[in-house]
Amino acid sequence: MIKKWSKKEIEFLKGNYSKNKDKELSKKINRSLKGISYMAWKLRLKKDKDFYCKSRRHLNFEIKKRQLIKLYIKEKNSIRDCAKKLKISKNTVDYYLKKFNIQTRNKSESSRGAFKKYGNWCIGLTKDTDKRLMRSFKKLSQTCKRKRMEKINKIEVGFKMPFPKNLNYLYWDKKLTQEKISHQLKIDRKIIIDLMRKYKINLRPNYEYINSLKGKNHPLYGKTWEEIYGLEGAKERRKFFSEFSRKMVIKRIKNNEFPFFNTKIEIAMANEMKKRHIYFVSQFEVDGKFVCDFAIPSIKLIVECDGDYWHGNPLIYNKNNLNKIQIGKIQRDKFKDKYLKRKGWKVIRFYESDIKNKLINCVDQIENIINNRL
User: Does the structure show a pLDDT above 90 at 163?
Assistant: First the structure.
C-alpha cells in the first residue's frame, strides 16, 4: 500500500523544498526520492536558483577561460580530449565553452582534425562487420529514399500527372534522351535509367543505323590497324591495350573477381598456414607484372600453388606430349621465377597432387625456409 501524505509532511515540504536537497528531505520525512520529486511536481514547487547552482557543483577546482582557450583552440584538442585532460565530463566542458563564449568547431572541422590525429577509424570495417557503419548506412539509404520521394512528389505536382506517365511522355512523345530528362527533372541519369526499368518503359531503337553497319556494311570492315592508324599509331594502340589488359587482369586476380577466384588448393594452403600462425599476403603483386599466390614479405619468400594439368606436372604428364597452353604456362613460370630471383625473392612451388596428399609436409617446408632465413 502507498503511504498517504499528511498535512504536516506537505507543509514541511513547502517550507523546506527550495533550499534543501532531496536526499536530506527524504531522510527527515522518511520518504523516497521519487515520492518527494512527484509531490514537488504536483505542488509546483521549485528549487532556489542560487542554492540549485551551488548544490550542482561537483568540481573541487575552478575552470578558467584561459585554460580552455589553451586546450581547445591553441592545442586543438577535441571536447572529449579536453574532458580527459581536466578529468571532468564532456558535458561540463561543453557547458563552460558556452559560458565563456568560446566558439566551437563545426562538424567538418572537428572530423578533419580527428582524421589527422587518429586516422580513419573505419579502415577494414564494413556494414556487415560493424554496427556503427550498419546504422549510418541505413540512415543514409533512408534519407536518400525520402529525398527522392520528395523530388518525385514535387515533379508530379509541377507536371500535374503521375511520375511514370510523365517519364513516358518525356521519353516517347517529346523524344528527349535519358540525359536531357535527367537535366530537366534534376535527377541523376542512373536513377532515371533505374526508374524506367522499374516502370517498364521500353527504350527507343536508337541504334538501328549502327546495327545495320555490321559485317561487310561497316566502312572499316577488313582493314588492319596499320591501314587505319599507320605503323606507329598501330604500335602505340597495341601497347596501350596490352598494358591495359595486364592491369585489368592483375586487378581482378588481386581482388578475387570473376573469372579469377581462389582455387581449392590455394584455400587449403592458406588455412593450414593460418593454423600455424604464418603471416602471409595472398595474391601479392610484384612491380605491376606478376601476381603471386602467397608472399611472406618479411623474408622475401614466394609460395606458388600450381595445378597439375595447367602447369604440366612432370610426374603425371610427359614433356613431349604437352599442349600449347601447358607449354606456355611452363615458359611463363620460368620467366616469372627468373625475374623474382633477380629481385631477391625465393620461390617455392607446390603441385596440386602434393598439396592434396601431403599438405602438412608442404607447410613444413615453408616453416623450415622461414626458420633458416630468420
Answer: yes
Rounded distance between C-alpha atoms, residue 265 and residue 357, angstroms: 11
Q: Which residues make Cβ contacts (< 8 Å) with residue 155, sequence separation at least 6?
A: 163, 166, 185
pLDDT in tens, 94-135: 888 988 888 888 888 888 888 777 777 777 788 888 888 899
Residue pair 306/350 in contact by the 8 Å Cβ criterion: yes
Instruction: Average the pLDDT over 306-318 and give the result.
Output: 92
Distance separating alpha carbons of residues 37 and 245, to the nearest angstrom: 75
* C-alpha to C-alpha distances, 96 to 78, 89, 271, nearest whole angstrom: 14, 11, 55
Question: For position 233, what pLDDT does the model report?
Answer: 92
Report which of 285, 281, 301, 279 is spatially closest to residue 253, judged by C-alpha positions. Answer: 285
User: Which of 16-20, 214-218, 263-267 ranks highest by mean pLDDT?
Assistant: 263-267
Half-sphere exposure of 4 (CA within 13 A, CB side): 2
345: pLDDT confidence band, cut at 50, 70 and 90?
very high
CA 65 to chain centre: 40
**Cis peptide leading into residue 259 (ω within 30°):** yes
pLDDT for 368: 93
Say which residue the cell 556494311 belongs to: 217
